[in-house]
Amino acid sequence: MVIDLKRCIGCYGCQLSCKAEHGTPPGVFFARVVKREFGTFPNTQLTFLPLLCFHCTDAACVEVCPTGASHYRQGGIVDIDATMCVGCRACIQACPYGARYYHDEQAAYFPGQGLTPYEQRKYATHTTGVVMKCNFCIDRVTSGLEPACVANCASRARVFGDLDDPHSEVSQLVRLRGGEQLQPELGTRPNVYYLPV
């Protein structure tokens, strides 16, 4: 995936569409947008930094998982098998990007009112006592669709594709616009690139 920081307007469309797609519990954001201000007054610039799981080539979370629940899927997507996860949370500690969440218990968005029909339908897909994270909307991708955050980006700041294909749009953007990984010094080799402002 490539995220163009010049095009991102901080609308939170990616965050909201991801939440709607996955029906994540309160406080769990597979995709999130962080505001960053650079410079010193009066010469400052506000930048929006969209964050998600970076699906690292050398993912620390996969290395530390004692059961193999955290694993690589075909195409390099890092995923979690909820049936194998024992909830030890070692992967949460190992992930340098804060992209994993422990799903302790079912929680309603409106406490005391019970779960809405939407929450009942979506929460049924989430197992408690396990870790959860972005999986690049693998169900959508295998159906030929883009991940929800890409499909619903109002400014088209996100592009999804095969980084291994030198002719793909994402590869060309990284090459031509100087795409950069977040914290490459960590050695995880993230597969999400940012195009500079």
What is this entry, summarized?
This protein has 197 residues and is α+β, with helices and mostly antiparallel strands.
Query: What is the β-strand count?
Result: 10
The biggest beta sheet reads: 4 strands, mixed
Distance between the termini: 17 Å
- The assigned CATH architecture is 2-Layer Sandwich
Task: Report strand %.
Answer: 15-25%
Question: Could you say what the CATH topology is called?
Answer: Alpha-Beta Plaits
Quickly count the helices. Answer: 7
Task: Give the overall pLDDT as a whole number.
Answer: 92
Helical percentage: 10-25%
Tell me the strand order in the biggest sheet.
8-1-10-9
Shape: globular
Give, in order, the helices and strands.
EHEEHEEHEHEHHEHEE
Commentary on this structure:
With 197 residues, the chain is an alpha+beta fold. The chain has a single domain, classed as Alpha-Beta Plaits (2-Layer Sandwich). 23% of the residues lie in helices and 21% in strands. It has seven helices and ten strands. A four-stranded mixed β-sheet has the order 8-1-10-9. A two-stranded antiparallel sheet has the order 2-3. Strands 4-5 form a two-stranded antiparallel ribbon. Strand 2 and strand 3 form a beta hairpin. The chain is globular, with a radius of gyration of 17 Å. 30% of the residues are buried.
Topology:
Layout: E1 2-4, H1 13-22, E2 32-40, E3 43-51, H2 60-64, E4 70-72, E5 78-80, H3 90-94, E6 100-103, H4 117-123, E7 130-133, H5 138-142, H6 148-151, E8 158-159, H7 169-177, E9 180-181, E10 193-195
Keywords for this structure?
alpha+beta; four-stranded mixed sheet; Alpha-Beta Plaits; 197 residues; 7 helices; single chain; 23% helix
